[in-house]
Amino acid sequence: MNRVLLATADVHAESGLPLGVTLTFSALLVGLILCLALEEKIHAKKSIIAGVFALVSLFLANVFHLYEYVDHKFLIKLPPFDSPLAHTAELPVYIPAIDWGVIALIFGASLFIDITSKSGLFTWIAIKLTKASKGDPRRLLWFYGLMTVVFSAVLNNVTAMIIVGSLTGVSLKKLGRSNLMLGFLLIEGLLTNIGGLLTLISSVPNIIVGNAAGISFVTFFVKSAPFVLVATIATIMLGAKLFGITNLHTVDEKNEGKELVRGFDENDGVESNGFFWFGAAMLVLFIVTIATTTVLPIVQDLGMSFVALAFAAVMLVRYKASVDKFYRAMDWDLLGFFAALFVVINVMEHAMVLDLIGKGLARIISLNEIIGHGAGTGAILVSSAAFSSVTDNIPLSAMLAKILQAQGTVSTDPLWWSVVFGANLGGNLTPIGSASTLVAVTIIHKNDLSMSFIRFVKLAIPFATLQIILATVYVLLVLQ
How far is CA 420 from the centre of its chain? Predict the structure, then answer.
């Protein structure tokens, strides 16, 4: 630890930022994590907790002049760009600090899914899957688990969780198995981060590390797919055991299950065949567009958030005279929390807290030369997972990618995969570790189920530990 602090002190000496300032903000980050862990004890919503820490962080950042230590001005140029009348407008630092792409994606996808559900489409899909399961809870868990992984790989974690979470609620209520809702939703939330490992474009850390290492799309898929398959099976099996999601064993139970699903009519929730098929077509088009956003002309420059907002706008036209009811149903606490969290993380980046973490991880990487090649590789996976559970994995991945690049790490070195697996799987350790797990907790709350920060950690620890162990073994034994 002393070596880390000394190395960081040298960097701070070059930047002019005192080390004590970084340690002060590090303590502030720890305080945020503790308050979120005690959310139910202090009787405050996540948006309020994160909002207070965002305000304090911004105030202290101004006190210590943090934004003067970086060569970056938050200015935008206003049109007409080539006119003498063109001018710039200065933005408050907390505006560009927020990742508006994520905010817009959650807002647009949530609206789209909420409105599409009015067509009866999700009820139809849920009942079809329920019928295919023949009323067997464990079989239904396998169906939904595999669907979650596939959706997370071709869409994004947040959208996948919103879609699958909506289907889960409908299916289990129809089946009279609401008591299994917590287990299903938690397992699905954890599987989103596993599915996010499947392709190069499934998550932002994948893109950052893949580009830095020069890993192709096909190579990424071939190397990650075996782990994703094993981790998916292990997670579903462990979840079924821990949450008591069992098969129907006796003949009477199986007959009762078949009889129960036989009485389900997938067309019950369909009020208009026209709107149903329109919703189905839009959902398919939405999935295809989201999955191909990075290669579509024009749209690739606008991003997935634009796609989500555009599809939501199209669906809103159906209820153009009563759109306010959908706005009221939005989870504003979730959006507020994300906005505030982005501000806090941005301040931490300028306070060089993330740099301090990166320097610590760089020391861990050096264990490869001191102890042996596997020591640093395994340690960096576990460490990056731990840090990703409480900080944004995007800047952390970018920092580690720069470190590995500076060391001349070849693309075949398993260190790259340690960063990829650690950054993604770390999101399963805490509810704030990834956007999809936070969305999963939100859906759990919407179904009137209790899920605090601490309870999530207690329930998720066995899964995350198993996944990280499997990833470490896979990287050390298979990818070496």
Answer: 14
CA-derived radius of gyration, the chain: 23
Where residue 199 falls (left for φ over 0; alpha for ψ -120 to 50; beta otherwise) is beta
C-alpha–C-alpha distance, residues 341 and 97, integer Å: 10
Cβ neighbours of residue 326 under 8 Å, at least 6 residues apart?
111, 114, 115, 316, 319
22-63 confidence digits (pLDDT tens): 899 989 988 887 887 777 678 888 889 889 999 999 999 988
Those residues whose C-beta lies under 8 Å from the C-beta of residue 241, and which sit 6 or more positions away, are none
Written in H, E and C, the secondary structure of the chain is: CHHHHHHHHHHHHHHCCCHHHHHHHHHHHHHHHHHHHCCCCCCCCHHHHHHHHHHHHHHHHHHCCHHHCCCCCCEEEECCCCCCCCEEEECCCHHHHCCHHHHHHHHHHHHHHHHHHCCCHHHHHHHHHHHHHCCCHHHHHHHHHHHHHHHHHHCCHHHHHHHHHHHHHHHHHHHCCHHHHHHHHHHHHHHHHHHCCCCCCCCHHHHHHHHHHCCCHHHHHHHHHHHHHHHHHHHHHHHHHHCCCCCCCCHHHHHHHHHHHHCCCCCCCCCCHHHHHHHHHHHHHHHHHHHCHHHCCCHHHHHHHHHHHHHHHHHHHHHCCCCHHHHHCCCHHHHHHHHHHHHHHHHHHHCCHHHHHHHHHHHHHCHHHHCCHHHHHHHHHHHHHHHHCCCCHHHHHHHHHHHHHHCCCCCCCCHHHHHHHHHHHHHHCCCCCCHHHHHHHHHHHHCCCCCCHHHHHHHHHHHHHHHHHHHHHHHHHCCC
Query: Residue 70 — φ and ψ, nearest 5°?
Result: -125, 145
How far is the C-alpha of 352 from the C-alpha of 346, rounded, in Å? 10
Alpha-carbon torsion, ordered 189, 190, 193, 196, to 10 deg: -70
- Residue found under tokens 């580690």: 400
Q: In this structure, are residues 289 and 156 in contact, taking their beta carbons and an 8 Å threshold?
A: no
Strand 87-90 to 75-78 pairing:
antiparallel
Reported as a single tens digit per residue, the pLDDT across 72-126 is: 445 455 555 555 555 565 667 777 778 787 788 878 888 888 888 888 887 788 7
CA–CA distance, 311 with 111 (Å, rounded to integer): 9
Identity of residue 390? V
| CB neighbours of residue 103 within 10 Å | 17
Structure-token pair, residue 396: 């952390």
Q: Residues 96, 72: contact at Cβ < 8 Å?
A: no
Q: pLDDT per residue over 335-358, tens digit each? A: 888 788 888 888 888 888 877 876
